Amino acid sequence: MKKTVRLIILVLIVGGGLTWAFFFREKDDPNLIKMSGNIEVVQVDLGFELSGILAERLADEGETVSKGDLLARLDDSNYILQVQQAKAELGYAQAVLEELEAGSRPEEIAQAKAMVSQREYALKELLSGSRAQEIKEAAAALDQAKAGALAAESKVALAKADYERYHKIFESGGISIQAVQTYETQMDIAQRGFEEAKARVQAANERLHLVKEGPRQELIRQARAALEQAEADYELVKAGPRKENIAQAKARVESAGEAVKIAEKRVRDSLLKAPFDGVILAKSAEPGAYMNPGTPVVTLAQMDPVWLRAFVSERDLGRIRLGMEVEVSTDAYPGKKYPGALSFISSESEFTPKSVQTFEERLNLMYRVKIELSNPDMALKPGMPADAVIRITQ
């Protein structure tokens, strides 16, 4: 029994000694560079390029998303309307261009030629002066107007005589005032008819003078200008559209096409999509909120690869180089090793953060390094503490 106890004690002493020796040998091994730090990821705040009302947010915190997944969308009703308007403008511009390129239609040429003929006839009529028949008709109209005026004047005299006669009878009490007023009204009507007849005589007299004098020079100038314009229009229609007009129409089509592209891009920009595979770390807006351009909606983290942010002392700086293999371990997953590579070495020294090194080591200037790690299962999380070891080979 005593021998068994002594054997157990001996094994414990030897085992403990070997463990102690191994630990301190590794700790003091000059070929090992040890570092501690925290896991970092690429994370971005995602927002819209446009302003508008947030209609829907489809991603929540902690969700895993793939590149191209729809995360949120704005109310796009106004942007869709802009697309429709832009397409309508493009269609109109294309129709104008097609019409110009097709040239003038036969019916348009015929219409322009007919207008020239009409203008020529009108000018010819003015230049030929008044016809004898027109003068005869104007004189007859004047005679008729004068006869009408004489008849109207006779009616006035008769109505006036009746009124005066019956007014005397009224004064003697022979008739009522209503009867007198009736004759007075008839006299007024006759007087107005006479005035209208005299106006017709004056108009007919002026018409006769105008016909005898012939057309005024102003009317002839206007008719001549109208003919010249009709002839110019006919030549333009017959020649077809000018090259510069076609070029301008093409430019309008191109401008309208660009407007359609811009409007369609606004519709696409009203959709917020994941730029890479990752995990939603935070949400910053809810449906119904007004979003300005660039206002964050969600924060997306890229979980593979990740980086360990650590520090190396100045004395070890010359022993490391980019691309060196690194072995990383975490408290969260004891015994599991993550292979990595040194991807960044700072060129400026700095004091080590309090959370990383001991007080004595914090007094030394350190250099920040980054170690890139593959994280396909997303086990390594942002902020997770981790240790790293670089083995220096001779």
TrEMBL record:
Coiled coil: 180-266
Residue span(s) of domain CusB-like beta-barrel: 305-388
GO cellular component: cell envelope
Pfam families (alphabetical): Beta-barrel_RND_2, HH_YBHG
Compartments, as annotated in UniProt: Periplasm
Residue stretches making up the YbhG-like alpha-helical hairpin domain: 117-234
Gene3D superfamilies from the UniProt entry: 2.40.30.170, 2.40.50.100, Helix hairpin bin
InterPro entries from the UniProt entry: Beta-barrel_RND_2, HH_YbhG-like, UPF0194_transport
Keywords assigned: Coiled coil, Membrane, Periplasm, Signal, Transmembrane, Transmembrane helix
Spans traversing the lipid bilayer: 7-24
Record keyword Ribosomal protein present: no
Family stated for the protein in its record: Belongs to the UPF0194 family.
Name of the protein this chain belongs to: HlyD family secretion protein
Lineage start: Bacteria, Pseudomonadati, Thermodesulfobacteriota, Desulfobacteria, Desulfobacterales
